[in-house]
Every structure is written in C-alpha cells, then in structure tokens.
Amino acid sequence: MSALLEIAGVAKSFGTIRAVDGIDLAVAPNEFFALLGPSGCGKTTLLRLIAGFEHPDRGTIRLDGADITATPPNKRPINLMFQSYALFPHMTVFANVAYGLEMEGLRGAALKARVEQALGLVQLSDQASRKPHQLSGGQKQRVALARALVKRPKLLLLDEPLGALDKKLREKMQIELKRLQQETGIAFLVVTHDQEEALTMADRIALLDHGKVAQLGRPRDLYERPESRFVADFVGQMNFFEGHRRGSGFAVAGLGLLPAQDLDAVPEGTAASLAVRPERVVLSDTAQPGAFAAEVVGSAYMGQDLVVHLALAGSGLPLVARLPASHRLAADIERGRQVHCSWAAEHARLLVK
Amino acid sequence: MTSNRLLLLAPGLAWLTALLIIPCGLIFVLGFFERGVYGGIDYTLTTENFARAVDPLYAGIFLYSARIALTAVVFSLLIGYPAATCIAKQPKRRQMPLLILVMMPFWSNYLIRTYAWIVLLNREGLINGALTKLGAISEPLPLLYNDFAIVTGLVYGYVPFMILALYSSISKLGPELAEASTDLGADSWRTFLRITLPLTLPGIAAGSVFVFVLSIGNFVTPDLLGGGKRTMLGNLIYDQFLTARDWPFGATLAFLLVALMMVLLTCQAVFVHRSATQEEARA
Amino acid sequence: MSAANPTQRWLQAHLGLVYLFLYGPIIVLIVLSFNRAGLPTAWTGFSTEWYGKLAANTKIINAVQNSLIVAFASTAISTVIGTLLAMGMEARRPHPALEALVAAPMIIPDIVLAIALLSFFSLLKMTLGLHSIILAHAVFNIAFVCTVVRTRFKHFDRSIVEASIDLGAGAFTTFRRVTLPVIAPGVIAAALLAFTLSIDEFIIAYFTAGPGSSSTTFPMQIYAMIRFGVTPEINAVATIVMGVSFVLVFLSQRLNREVEA
C-alpha cells in the first residue's frame, strides 16, 4: 500500500527557534496516526504545516502522490479539527457543518442530506438548530468533528482533540474517535501530548522531540522497545540505572553486574542507561539469587495496582515497582518493610542515547 | 499577510496623516510666521509669537486658566475618588451598568449640559428661585458668570472621565491587599493612606492630566458660564482665530497647549512606569 | 454586602449624590421643557407648546438637517475606515507609534484640532462647508470606531478564521461570512457612538463650517440660541438632544455588552 501523506525533509523555523527540524514520515491510507510529544516539540507546527497554515522553510509535503507544499489551506483535501473547536459562534450546529460543503458549491437537498448524515454519525441529529454556546464541551467537540468529517477529506487532522474534556468523557471519546475512523475509512492524524491517548488510539505513533522524530512505530514498539532514553522516559513510567557495559552484564556502581537484554549491541565500557518498567519488577519476601534487597519507602494505592517506592539496600538507589492489587504482597506493603526485587534479563533494556 | 495588513491600515493611516498629522504640524510651523496685515499669514520667519506668549498679559491669562483648571481637577478628584471606590466595591455584574450610567452624560451634548447650569445658577434660576421662596435669601446670589460657575461647569463636564480613570485603577487593585492590611492591624484610614492611595496614583495621575488639559483648553464653559468676562487659554486661541485674526499667534498658543499636554502625559507615563518597576522590584 | 459597614454606606450615599449631580440638571431641563410658562421658578402647567414652536423654526430644522448629513456621512466613512484599521491593528501587535496616532484624536483638545484643520483647509484654499465638517469629524470618529472595534477583537477566537479557510473558503468569503458577522455588534456599536459624537460635536464644526449660515449644524444653532439667553425653546431642544444621545449611547453600550456574553 502506498503512502497517503508523505512528509520529506520538512523544516520550519520561527526566528531562531527551529520548531520543525527536518522531519520525514509517511501516513498510510486508513491509518490512525498520532504525533506525540511534550509541549514545544514541534507537533503543532507540523500539524499546521500539513494543514497549510504555515509554509515550510524546506522539504515537501505530498498527498496521494501530489505535491501540496504550495497549495493554500482552502484548496487541500485535508481538514483540521481545532483544539478550541473554532465553531462559528453566530451559526447553528447545522450551519457550521454545512459551511464546508457550501464552499464546494453544494446546495439544497444534497447538502441537507450530507449534513444530517454527518450529524447522525456523531449522534447530534437533535441538536442541529442550536448555537454553539448552548452546547456542552463534549457536544461542541462532536460538532467540530462532524464539520471536518462532512467534507470527506482524505486526511483529518485533530489538534489535541480530547484536551478540553474531563477524564471520563475523554476515555469515552477515545473509543468514539477510533470507531469513527474505522467507519469512515478516513486517515486520522492526531496531535497530542498525552501518551496514554496516543497508545490507546493510534495504529502508529511518531514521538517528536525538539522538532525531530525521536521514534516512529506501533504503540507496542514505543512502549516495549524504546530506542532512546527520551522515548523510554516519555512513554510510560521507567526505572533507570546509569552504568557501563562490562563483560556479560551491565555494571552499576553499588549494585554490581545487572542482567540486560541485547548486550552485544553495546560495546564494552560504553556508558549507558538500563531501563526497567515498574510492572516488570518482581517483588518477593524471600531472598533469591540475583535479587536485590530493598526497603519500602512509600506506596500509592491506584485501585487495580499498587505502586511501591523502594530504596535498594547498600546503594540507596530508588526503584519503583508496580504490582497488581491482587498480588500476595500487596496487602501488607508498608513503609520500612524489607523486600527482595528482581527482573528478567529480557525486560531490562540498554539505552545508549 | 503583511501586504493584506497594510491594505487594511492604508485608508486609516492616509486619513489621519492628511487630516491630523499634517494640520497639527502646520500649527507648529505657523507659529514661526508673522501675521498678515489683513489677518492671514505673512510668510516671514519670526520667533516673536513665542516671545509674546510669555508677555505678562498672556502669562497672566495662562496662570489664571491653570488655576481654574487645577481647581476643577481637585474637585473632580474629591468627587470622583469615593464614587469610583464605591463602584469598584459593587458586585461585578453591577459595576458595568453603574459605569455606563456615569459615562452617558460624557458621551452626550456638552453644550446642553453646560446650558443646564445657566438655568440652575441664573439670577432668576432654579437655585436662586428656590432659596428666595424658602426665605433663605432676600437678594439673588451671584452664582453665574464667575469663577465658581466656570469650575462647576468644568467639574460637571469632566468628572465622568475622572471616575472612569480612577475606577480602572482601583478595580485592578482588588480587595485582597486592603484585607491583608486590615488583617495586619491597620485601620481603614491607614489602609487607605498606606496601601490603596499609593497603588492608585497612576489612575489619579491619568485622570488629573486629562481633566486639566480638557479644562485649560476649554472655551465653551468660560464663554457661557463665565459670561465671557474672564478669558481662559481656550478663549484666547478662539479669539486669535475668529476675532483678532492673528492666526500665527493663535497657532503658537495652541502649540503651547499641546506641548503642555505632552509634558504632563510624559510625566504621567514615566510616573506610572516607575511605580510599575518599583512594584516589580518589590515582588 | 448584607452587613454594609458605615464607610460603605457613606460611599453609597456619595455615589447617589454623584448621580444626582450628573442627572439632576438634565432632569430639570426636561421638566422645564414641559412647563407652560417655560420659567424655572414656577410650574404653571403641563404643555408641549415649546416643542410645537421648535417644529415651526426653520433655522432649527435646517440645522438639524445639516447635522444629520454630517453625522451620517462621517459615520459611514469612519465606520468603514475605522473597522479596517482595527482589523489591521489586530492582525499583529501594532507599533506604539500607530497606537499613539489612533489615540491622538481622542485626547487632543478639540480646539487644537479645530484650528489645525481650519488652518490646513485655508492653506489649501478649500471652500468650507458641510463637506469640510464631514472630513474633520471623520478624524476623531475613525479613532473612536477603531478603538471600539478593537475591543470586540479582544474576544475574537482567531482560529475560526482558520477554520473557515480550512473548510475551503477564500479570504473574502471568510471575511463576509465569519469575521464580519462575529464583529458586527462591535461595528454597529462603534457606528452608533460615532453618530452620537458627530451629531453633538460643536467646536470642530464651528471652526470648519466656514462663514454664512448655510452650513450651520445643530450644535452651532444651539450655541447661538444659548448665547442669546435662556428661552423655553432651548429646554425643548435640550430634551430632544439628550434623549436621542442617551438612546444611541445606550444602544451602543448594550451591543457592546452582548460581546462579553
């Protein structure tokens, strides 16, 4: 399958700030793609470049093989759902959704049918004659979605689509967006700073850092196989140990040699970080070979999970472990308690960058 | 985008350049020419107009105008400050209507509002009539055609402006600082002197400068309520243009008026800036 | 609020007096305009005869016509130019000099602007008349319109302009269908204010009207009448003028208030 959107070597600076610093990526048709990153990473600029509101300093943007780098935003078969929703305050819900179709010259019954279909899709058929200020936040968001989708764009851009919603509604809309994307078959490109949102919704994620792609891949790749410390740190929670590759293990001051996967990829003596997910840390109350003694410093009850903060014996290095609330130890984890912790070599990843 | 913006700005800029900047520049230039024999302008360079402006006769008029304008400022402040404070203390949704009620007369016809005071202060006017009827006086009081009437008219005309300037300063302050001061043991009078008054000085300065400048340049009020007996700076400029037909001298006086306004506004701006930086330094 | 302390009660009493000070004289004029004898000292019965007299006064009718011409023309000019100026100034943070230029007509004493324009017009050997008053009134009205419309833009979500373009509209369509309808209440409020200012403006009109009575505006006529002395007719004029001004200013403020909602 050839790419729908191809971005090649795109860069954009504002004054001395390089907002987008040479980005290449491709979005496939029918894909749910997420641009993830902390604020200031360039994701919003990249979105505005794709929408056409900014012009790249260099690089090209292609859609369906055609170069659209110089095409003005109103001539691109791409629509944007604005972070603020940007609903026209003086128009009804119906008129808001109809606006884009009117620009295509659609009138009368055909227009009405398309608008009603779009409103049905977002379950707002009964709100058609309302004005934006009479709607709730979630309803406004759905109007904005219908307004962009009704034009049947090849690509729909969504700028922090769930940012203004409360947590419950956000979770509901994550599923809703996914459903709409599959139903309409339109490629979605979502910009978000919320990694959980990206992990749950997207087929693929590009994690941006300082205007560059830090890692591009499926959610599972980013979570399980981060390629840099930045990625490992940004996506999910992570324990890091600083040290050097030595012989058959990874040497950390005060802990000795730790097991790690893919040791051969790192040359002897290279400084690196060892990354272990909290849920991969195994806790036990009996000493086992290869396990470290540790003392519980504190714990946080999270409902299904218990997050345990530990200090490793001897070195005092911090370690976070996450265990299911049903775990045998979970019931009597308390401050000062001695435990033993370990992890499998395949769950310890060496990161040089 | 930039060319679009210029297109939007162009008509307004052109209009204001042709009919504001150039005419005001002309006023400055005119001051350096001589008066023509039959009025008009004789294009011979001179600095005589500026020398004449400081002549005791005109300096006297200027000082008198300044005194009247300053009196108007003081009364506007005394009336305006408590009023602005009171409005700022009202519930938020009631503040705007109250302010609009203050500003309504300001936006409407100045002549009519001045005329109302003739009706009130006249020898046969409402106040004298009422006082006579009550038996409080046997002879009508000379309320009209004097400095009292002029100041009353000016205060009446410009106190809304003063209230607006003071309100924007006072409402920015919020009640927390005064509450903190009270909490620390100051009574309300000391809280006012030590906290509220110093922090609202920018508003006081802004309101005072405008009331002063508008008053000193006014000619309608001295003409109608002063009975044309006393000349203020505004009347003097008016006379040079429409009666004496000495345009260069009139232009000089107008220029001096604008210069005075600029100096006062600059002082006020520097003052506001300084108090702002002091606040920052304190923060 | 419930337990108002003495200071607050004093302040409220003071504020009440301030409103009395501001509106008392106007109310007196209105009442007197319906007094049969027209004198301020005694109420001699309700009458509308002074209004009847006004309607028969051709000088006043003429002056009102002139003022309406000036006010409509200068409002039309300044609403268009001032709105464009406001849009241009809100497109990007304007230069302080531009801000000062727009503020200047509002703070310069009227008499200075009046003589400056008179000198300028006579330097150009321009014939004075209603047209020169219109040119002059547009100067301060452009500034006021621009300022009022800019406050409207402060509440304007710029992303709706981009949304319109994103949905396929061009720059002009976006202006006509999105920007203009959204700022319209501000523009109308500005126009009403400009109209009020123009129809009430005396000093600048007085200087730029030129000789002769053909271009006498309503305030100029009022000034002439006032100088002549207190007459019941003026009370009737005053009532009408204040009534019209207040209605226009009130409407203008109402429109602007809806902006906040």
TrEMBL record, chain A:
Catalytic activity: ATP + H2O + polyamine-[polyamine-binding protein]Side 1 = ADP + phosphate + polyamineSide 2 + [polyamine-binding protein]Side 1
Key words of the record: ATP-binding, Cell membrane, Membrane, Nucleotide-binding, Translocase, Transport
SMART domains: AAA
Domain ABC transporter, residue spans: 5-235
Recorded GO MF terms: ATP binding
Gene3D superfamilies named among the record's database cross-references: 2.40.50.100, P-loop containing nucleotide triphosphate hydrolases
Family to which this protein belongs: Belongs to the ABC transporter superfamily. Spermidine/putrescine importer (TC 3.A.1.11.1) family.
PANTHER family the UniProt entry points to: SPERMIDINE/PUTRESCINE IMPORT ATP-BINDING PROTEIN POTA, SPERMIDINE_PUTRESCINE IMPORT ATP-BINDING PROTEIN POTA
Described purpose of this protein according to its UniProt entry: Part of the ABC transporter complex PotABCD involved in spermidine/putrescine import. Responsible for energy coupling to the transport system.
Subunit structure as annotated in this protein's UniProt entry: The complex is composed of two ATP-binding proteins (PotA), two transmembrane proteins (PotB and PotC) and a solute-binding protein (PotD).
Protein name in UniProt: Spermidine/putrescine import ATP-binding protein PotA
Gene name for this UniProt entry: potA
UniProtKB/TrEMBL annotation, chain B:
Domain ABC transmembrane type-1: 62-266
Transmembrane segments: 12-33, 61-84, 96-118, 148-167, 199-220, 249-272
Protein name in the entry: ABC transporter permease
Membrane topology: Multi-pass membrane protein
Superkingdom of origin organism: Bacteria
Taxonomic path: Bacteria, Pseudomonadati, Pseudomonadota, Alphaproteobacteria, Rhodospirillales
Key words of the record: Cell membrane, Membrane, Transmembrane, Transmembrane helix, Transport
Organism encoding this protein: Dongia sedimenti
Family: Belongs to the binding-protein-dependent transport system permease family. CysTW subfamily.
TrEMBL record, chain C:
Keywords: Cell membrane, Membrane, Transmembrane, Transmembrane helix, Transport
Membrane topology: Multi-pass membrane protein
Locations listed in the record: Cell membrane
ABC transmembrane type-1 domain mapped to chain residues: 64-252
CDD domains to which the protein is assigned, alphabetical: TM_PBP2
Family per record: Belongs to the binding-protein-dependent transport system permease family. CysTW subfamily.
Matching PANTHER family: PUTRESCINE TRANSPORT SYSTEM PERMEASE PROTEIN POTI (PTHR43848)
UniProt protein name: ABC transporter permease
Organism from which the protein derives: Dongia sedimenti
Lineage, top ranks: Bacteria, Pseudomonadati, Pseudomonadota, Alphaproteobacteria, Rhodospirillales
